[in-house]
Amino acid sequence: MYKEILKYTKDHGVMLVAVSKTRSADDIMKLYNEDQRIFGENKVQELTEKYNLLPKDIKWHLIGHLQSNKVKYIAPFIDMIESVDSEDLIYMIDKEGRKNNRVISVLLQFHIAAEESKFGLNLPDAKNLLTNILHKYNLSHVRICGVMGMATFTEDIQQLRDEFKSLKTIFNFLKENYFVEDDHFKEISMGMSGDYEIAIAEGSTMVRIGSAIFGVRS
Ligand SMILES: *Cc1c(COP(=O)(O)O)cnc(C)c1O
After folding, report:
1. Does pLDDT of 23 surpass 90?
2. For the chain, what is the domain count?
3. Are 171 and 187 in contact (CB under 8 A)?
4. Which atom of ligand 1 is nearest to the CA of 193?
5. Residue 60 C-alpha to ligand 1 middle, in angstroms?
6. Residue ID of nearest Cα to ligand 1 atom 12
7. In which band, very low, low, confident or very high, does the pLDDT at 137 lie, cut at 50, 70 and 90?
8. How confident is the model over 159-198, as pLDDT tens digits?
9. pLDDT digits (tens, 9 = 90+) for 139-153
10. Are 206 and 14 in contact (CB under 8 A)?
11. Is the shortest distance between the CB of 19 and ligand 1 below 6 Å?
């Protein structure tokens, strides 16, 4: 499936993040040898182990919940943290970015699904967060590049469409109100194995695909 998905995302100008959580280093190398360079992991420990084992030109995206006290383990090498949902986390990423002399790219994660979740911002949270960080701090080592969200696990296409539309609307609002002059703020990470075609139709710029590439996770 990898080749078909890669072609589909390329044809639509969308970035493909191959979600390699639970997969072995060998599985990742097979895809690396087909020129895939962007991989997504959801756990810090698994990510750092794979980082140590695998070629250093891989761009790693963290896509799972991140505790502030673990930022230090990934700050030296992470390409993008897609799952930022608190002010404290942003300050910590900035601090660790500074220590490592790196600017770390992040996305703000939003809760767009109907399912309950402890993680992800809503629009009022995000307005607060952005107002606070834009006024209080000079955050020179963290770069907010856009938004990320996960839709409900459902086959209801209209519901998926509506949830993706809601993230696109949030993106547009934040772009107009906080990032008009910031060209880095341009990514909408939405779409997984079961729903990436709908997500792309609704304006995704980045999809995170695991099982459709690697097979069903055990
Ligand atoms: C696991 C995961 C994915 C990929 O899921 P698939 O259904 O295997 O494509 C995407 N995003 C996040 C945040 C994930 O945790």
Report:
1. yes
2. 1
3. no
4. 9
5. 14
6. 63
7. low
8. 999 999 999 999 999 999 999 999 999 999 999 999 999 9
9. 999 999 999 999 999
10. yes
11. yes
